TrEMBL record:
It catalyses: CMP + ATP = CDP + ADP; dCMP + ATP = dCDP + ADP. Its EC number is 2.7.4.25. Keywords: ATP-binding, Cytoplasm, Kinase, Nucleotide-binding, Transferase. The gene is cmk. It comes from the Bacteria. The lineage of its organism: Bacteria, Pseudomonadati, Pseudomonadota, Alphaproteobacteria, Caulobacterales. CDD domains: CMPK. One of its GO terms (molecular function) is dCMP kinase activity. This is Cytidylate kinase. ATP binds at G9, P10, A11, A12, S13, G14, K15, G16, T17. Its main location: cytoplasm.
């Protein structure tokens, strides 16, 4: 059995930072699956297509070039995040990206993936599963600080409303909704800084490794 670490959770919970650090710690490849959906959303927006056009979104997903996604500044905006949440609700988009994500998770060396449905759909047999969360207010504060530091003009109340809207959409969609896997360990980072959150996550992974003899 390979060490596959599934890190799920809502926006701005800290899951991406935690997943990246876990990958470095264990020497594993890392995939931020949210970037895939952000890239699909941005492709539609730049083509002038509606985010509600499932056929166009599915075609964009099928033709997606994943090279360089982690370095694309277009994918870090609030607009890209909102677009990702909307196109992720299309069953066709999720189906188009499923094989890519599962192939990444199936690498012999193991892998770390973060997203909304890693532990429930993409890698349900992953030996280490975390569901990272925090209160909407704390998550909105984190994202607001992140975006304003980059020069984006957005108010906190607008950011909070966006977080709450995305939570409702991600949890309520019919296709692979965001839910905590039954065997995932809940990690609430509301009162944690990143060092404390990472340490807690690492201990969760170490417990899973011991359990599975990895």
């Amino acid at each position: 059995m390979s060490l596959i670490i599934a890190v799920d959770g809502p926006a701005a919970s800290g899951k991406g930072t935690i997943a990246a650090r876990l990958a470095r710690t264990y020497g594993l490849p890392h995939l931020d699956t949210g970037l895939l959906y952000r890239a699909v959303g941005v492709k539609l927006l730049e083509a002038g297509r509606s985010l509600d056009d499932e056929a166009a979104a599915t075609e964009a997903a099928r033709s997606l070039d994943v090279a360089g996604l982690s370095d694309d500044p277009r994918l870090t905006t609030g607009e890209a995040g909102e677009a990702a949440s909307r196109v992720a609700g299309h069953p066709g988009v999720r189906a188009a990206l499923l094989d890519l994500q599962q192939a990444f998770a199936a690498q012999a060396v193991g892998a770390v993936l973060d997203g909304r449905d890693i532990g429930t759909v993409i890698a349900p047999d992953a030996p280490a599963k975390l569901f990272v969360t925090a209160t909407p207010e704390v998550r909105a504060t984190r994202r607001w600080r992140q975006l304003t530091a980059r020069g984006f003009d957005i108010g906190f109340e607008e950011m909070l409303a966006d977080i709450q809207r995305r939570d409702a959409r991600d949890a309520g969609r019919g296709a692979a909704p965001m839910v905590q896997a039954e065997d995932a360990v809940l990690l609430d980072t509301t009162d944690m800084d990143i060092e404390a959150a990472f340490d807690a996550a690492r201990r969760i992974v170490e417990t899973a490794r011991a359990k599975h003899g990895l």
